[in-house]
Every structure is written in C-alpha cells, then in structure tokens.
Design goal:
The chain is of the alpha+beta class. The protein contains 25 helices and 24 strands.
Length: 681
C-alpha cells in the first residue's frame, strides 16, 4: 500500500470494486440487475477517476481494466481472434456531444479548420446483447457472446433457434466472415411475453434487454426457441478471403446483401451538424421505434481513416456512443406532501432530491393516491426510481429495496387538510380522499377561481396562479363574484403588478361578462360537470333558472346524465352559498343569451327547445322528424335565429346550416336527435 494514498481513498476504491463486481455478476450471470445503467455508470466513473488520480492503486484485475462480463462455466469458451471491443461514451447528452466527437476526430487526423467535413456513418445504439456470428463458407459455424471481449461463450445451439439469423448467407460469402451485431427483443414481443407470464402466474421480466440476454444464455435451446429474439448486424470481426468494402456504409450494405438484418435507421452524415441532426431526430422518435435503443453510434465512414485513427487502450478512436439522457434515475424521496384540488381531491406529491432525468430536473412528482403508495411500498427516506420518457409527466416507478435506510418511514394520509384544517374523508368505494372544507378551504377556492377563469370557462386572460394566490391569501377575493368587484386600484396595489398588466386584467374581467350559458355552467365547477355536460344542460334547459330549478328526476332527462351526475348537479344548486354566488355574478353584469324557460313545457325531453331542420336526413323524412320533435315537447321553426337551440342537418344542407354556423347555433345530426329523444322515460 502506498503511503501517499489516504486510507479513505484506498477503502473507497476497494468498496467500489467489490460493488461493481457484484453488479457485474447480477447483470451478466443472473441477468437480473438491481441498479440502473446510470447508477452503474456513476460508480464506474468514480472508480476510473480515483484510479486516474492515484495510479498506484490500479490493479490488473480492477473492473476498469476489462471490457465486459465474466464468462459462465456452463458454456464452452470461444476465443475472439478479433477482440469484441466496447466504444467510448460521449459524456454530453445534448446534441453538442456530436460536435465534441467531430472536433476530436479532426484533431486526431490533424485536419485543417477549412478542410471539408468528415463523413460519418450514424447508426442506432441497440440495447440488446452483443453477438459474434462466425460464418464459414457461408454457413453459420459459431455464435459467441462478448464475454470479457477476448473470450466469450459458445451459444451456437441457442442462436440457431433464432429465425432472424440466417443459417446460410446469400450471394458469394467469403470462406470466413465474423459478423458482429446485437440480439434484441422488440417491445411488443416483450410485452406479449410478460402478458403470458402473468397469465401463467409466473415472475415478470424486467426489460427486453435482460430478457434477450437470459434467453441467449439458456442451457436448453428449446427454451431459447420460445423467446422471440431478433438481430441487427453492425460490424465485422475476423474475415478471410474477402475484399472488404472501403467504408462502413458499404460494409453494412454488403452485410444486408448477404441476407443479414441491418437496421434501415442509418444515415451517412457530413460533419458535426448532420450528426447532431441525426441525434435529435432519433431522440424525438425513440419512443416510436419498435425496439429499445439507448442512444446512437457515430463511426468514421472510411475504413482507411479508421485504421489510421486506431485504438486507445481498448476503445476504437473512430467511433463513439452518444447516449440519450437516461429516462430513469434514482432519487431520494425526501417527503410526501399533499395537494388539494378544486373539488377537494387530495393528491399526494413526492418531494425528491432534485434529479436530472429525461432531459429535465425533477423535484416534485404526483403519486395519485394513498393505495398506490401502499401498493408500491414507497417509504419516506427510500431511494426511488424516477422515470420521465419523452415529454410525459415524470413518474415514481418503484422503491429500490436494497437502498432503504433503517429509518425509512411509512406515509399516512393526514386526518386534516393542511390548508384549512377541515377533516379529510375518503368514501368506502373511492380511491381518492377529499378535504371536506369546500370553498372554506383556500386551496379549493384558488382552484375554483382558476377554473372559473380558464380559457374554456369565462376565459379571463392574465388571471393565473400567482395572481390568484395573492388575491385569495390577501383576503381580497373569496368567490368568483368578488372578481367583478376588483378595480384597477386594488389590482395595481398588489405586489409585482405593473399598472399595465393590472389594466389588462381589468379589461379581461370586463370582457368575460359577456358569455354563453354553457360556459357559465361549466365555469361554476360543479363536480363531474365537464364541458360536454354543461353544453347538454344549457341545450336541454335553455335558461339558468331552469337548470337551477331542476330536480334529480328532471336532470335524468338530460342526455348522458346518470344518477351520480344528477345528484351532484342538484346538490350544487340546492346549496345556498352557490345560489348566492350566482346571484352576485348576475348582479355584477355577467350575462348570456337564454332560451325559453323550461316551465313552458315540462312534458318531454325536448321541452322548451327549438329546432330547425335542413337537408336530407339519413332515415327520417322531414315530416317524421318534425312529428318526433314535437311529440317530445320541442318546437320546429322554419328559419334559424339566435333563439334556435339546434339545427338538425342532413346531406346537402344549405343556407340554414351556414346561418347556424354564423350565429354559433349547435348543429346536430339525426343520430344525435334520436338520442335526445330516446332519453324519454
Ligand atoms: S460498434 C468497435 N455499433 O454497444 C466498435 N456497437 O460499447 C464495436 N452496440 O456492446 C461496437 N449498437 O454491442 C456498435 N450500431 C452499433 C451498436 C453497438 C449497439 C453495442 C455493442 C457494444 C456496445 C458498445
């Protein structure tokens, strides 16, 4: 032991080596890794850095000194006459990584800055198992895994069961040709395999790559035969008696001509900008590919230049793997807080130690509900796997049990709402817990205001979360009606509110007074009443007073309104506080066109509604349609006006349809009309 090396460093190096070896064993020999690639890379990089700082600690058996995994005793050894190397990984996971590679290549080749752009082959980096296929006189002779790069495992019997791998090459293959490539499993095949496992009550596989690796290294080829494996060729090893093509692109074409599968997702790229474009295009389409990749690979296209560039220890200088930002990363779960929604729904939110995943920094992730947390056994203090693929919302996938500290705590739903102190209730058959505070709860009030002002409701531009927070927290606004009492002075007095933006908000509030009945109903935020139901209610009842007066039985006549919705609507309008807010809104000048009051004809489902017929309906004659509408309590008018509730249009509809569109009158077809009428008891 060298005295110059601090004991702590030696200990850390030893610990890293044994940890990495253990993960190698799990990955290569058991095909059951317990950490993500990114975590593994972090351990590996730390060890490389420490060994670089203290070269005296380097040993020949350090994990940094070998290429891949160990060979299992069950398979006969295969010596690779041309070693199976790995490639250097570009550290920058933005498009700029491409420029770094290009700059390095130009430097190594001592190219002048005005020399023409380098030509590269850009390929996908398949996420499977590396494989060497030795063809002798065109016949598959040996299939071997990479092993440690020098010696792999003979898995010929297993590989012969893979239909995608030809037993014989087409055309005029040379006496010896070693094809290097990747065995993989498509996402669809992986999902189907797991569905079968689940149906049979068997353990589920972790991911396509490990499943493919496990299948290749089965002791019984019959088992491999049942796994849907695929193959892509991307290079060659030993060759004899073949005039090699001059470029990587021509080489891939030649391999394809021999009947080997070569991915069509490859591109000849001129210079760094083409590489960067390829990187970004592939990244954007990553989720749509039928198989998994973890990045792209760039190779100098000219084989002559490849030879000139040569190797650096065990990696070729002429190629690089440019990975995408990892989609899964571990992060510490610091706490679970709760968020209160507009209807009081409580959503637990994971507070995480900031983690860079899928290209953004993630700190908060919603956890859906209490059962979900229990089902996944997430505890505060756990290290959890955070996933963000593409543009989707980040998720907490699972906890990593090996990393659970002894003091990790279970989380329980609090008894009281942190915002207003009201009790939190959860109905027996509901997954969601709710704050019972209603509009007393400031969190619910804020959400209700934001909903009221949202684009599809009263559309008050400029009334965002920050402003609503200030207005509610300052006790200035309690209900949506209070918004109409805000003057320029009150708004401009708020912190961080410029006169100009205050003026804009006032104007937006003023503008929102003119609206439609369906927008108004939607804006009230009645539980379960979305835009479509609001529209149906407006159409059915014609006026707000008719909606307010409707009891559950009357509400059940509205299209798509079932018992749950009918109770929710009736309760909302029975609540004196809600009626008061509605009265205040009307008094403040909020108005909308209304149809005839429903009291006029409470008889049928179309009571109080006026229709106009136009065009040829698919099955009903004009007279039949008229008779049906009238017997359901509706009226049929001859021309379209603002008072028309709906225009029923068929084929070849003419000016009435145009008029309806002009006035914003709803246009429906025969089917929708029948549905409206069909709701009659
Ligand atoms: S070329 C000497 N091309 O990535 C260069 N490798 O560390 C040899 N891989 O395990 C590799 N897709 O199995 C190359 N289009 C591709 C690849 C690819 C996936 C794998 C390869 C190896 C690792 C490179």
């Amino acid at each position: 032991m060298n005295a110059a090396v601090p004991a702590a460093v030696s200990r850390r190096v030893a610990a890293l080596r044994s940890e990495i070896r253990e993960h190698d064993r799990r990955y290569y020999n058991e095909d059951a890794p317990t950490i993500s690639d990114a975590e593994y890379d972090a351990l590996f990089r730390e060890l490389v850095a420490l060994e670089a700082e203290h070269p005296e600690l380097r040993t020949p058996d350090s994990p940094t000194q070998r290429v891949g995994g160990a060979r299992a005793a069950e398979f006969a050894p295969v010596r690779h006459r041309v070693p199976m190397l790995s490639i250097r990984t570009e550290t920058d996971t933005t498009a700029a990584g491409a420029a770094e590679f290009d700059a390095r290549i130009r430097r190594e080749l001592k190219l002048a800055s005005d020399a023409p752009p380098m030509v590269y082959m850009a390929e996908l980096k398949f996420d499977g198992v590396a494989m060497s296929l030795r063809y002798e006189n065109g016949a598959l002779a040996v299939a071997a895994t990479r092993g440690d790069g020098e010696t792999g495992e003979d898995v010929t019997a297993n590989v012969r069961t893979i239909p995608a791998i030809p037993q014989r090459l087409r055309g005029k293959p040379p006496p010896v040709l070693e094809v290097r490539g990747e065995i993989y499993m498509t996402r669809a095949d992986f999902a189907a395999l797991n569905a079968r496992q689940q149906a049979a009550g068997q353990k589920l596989y972790v991911n396509p790559r490990n499943t493919a690796a496990g299948a290749v290294r089965q002791l019984d080829p019959a088992v491999t035969a049942q796994r849907p494996l695929q193959f892509f060729a991307y290079g060659i090893g030993e060759v004899e008696g073949w005039q090699q093509p001059p470029t990587q692109s021509a080489l891939l074409d030649a391999l394809a001509a021999f009947g080997l599968p070569v991915s069509a997702e490859r591109k000849l790229a001129k210079g760094a900008s083409d590489l960067a474009k390829f990187y970004e295009r592939v990244q954007a389409r990553r989720a749509d590919l039928p198989f998994e990749i973890d990045g792209v690979v760039y190779k100098v296209d000219s084989l002559e230049l490849q030879r000139e560039l040569g190797f650096r220890t065990r990696e070729p200088r002429w190629a690089v793997a440019h990975k995408f930002p990892p989609e899964e990363m571990p992060a510490k779960l610091l706490a679970i807080d709760i968020q209160v929604g507009r209807t009081g729904a409580i959503t637990p939110v994971a507070r995480l130690e900031p983690v860079f995943v899928g290209g953004t920094t993630v700190t908060n992730v919603t956890l859906h509900n209490e059962d979900e947390i229990r089902r996944r056994d997430l505890r505060i203090g756990d290290t959890v796997v955070v996933r963000r693929a593409g543009d989707v919302i980040p998720q907490v996938v699972r906890a990593i049990p090996e990393k659970r500290p002894p003091d990790a705590r279970e989380w329980r739903m609090p008894k009281r709402c942190p915002e207003c102190g009201s009790t939190i209730v959860r109905l027996p058959d509901e997954a969601i817990a709710r704050c019972s505070g209603g509009l007393v709860c400031p969190a619910q009030r804020k959400q209700a205001l934001l909903h009221f002002a949202s684009r599809r409701a009263l559309d008050i531009e400029g009334l965002g979360d920050k402003l609503v927070d200030q207005l509610v927290d300052g006790g200035i606004v309690h209900t949506p009606a209070d918004l109409y009492k805000l003057g320029l002075a009150k708004l401009a007095a708020l912190e961080r509110m410029a006169d100009k933006s205050a003026g804009n908000v006032v104007a937006a509030i003023e503008k929102s007074k003119r609206t439609t009945l369906s927008r108004f109903i939607y804006a009230l935020g009645v539980r379960h009443v979305g835009e479509a139901t609001a529209r149906d209610l407006a159409l059915h009842f014609g006026s707000l007073d008719a909606v307010i007066a409707a009891d559950e039985a009357a509400l059940l006549h509205v299209r798509d309104v079932g018992p749950v919705l009918a109770v929710s609507i009736a309760r909302f309008f029975a609540e004196p506080h809600n009626r008061e807010v509605i009265a205040q809104l009307r008094a403040a000048g909020v108005h909308f066109p209304e149809g005839p009051p429903s009291a006029a004809a409470a008889a049928g489902p179309l009571a109080g509604l006026t229709f106009v017929l136009t065009g040829t309906l698919p099955t009903l004659s004009r007279d039949d349609a008229k008779a049906r509408i009238e017997s359901a309590g509706g009226k049929v008018a001859g021309s379209v006006s603002k008072k028309t509730n709906s225009v029923v249009a068929g084929d070849d509809a003419g000016s009435k349809l145009a008029k309806a569109k002009e006035l914003g009158v709803a246009v429906i077809g025969e089917e929708a009309l029948s549905e409206l009428i069909g709701q009659a008891p």
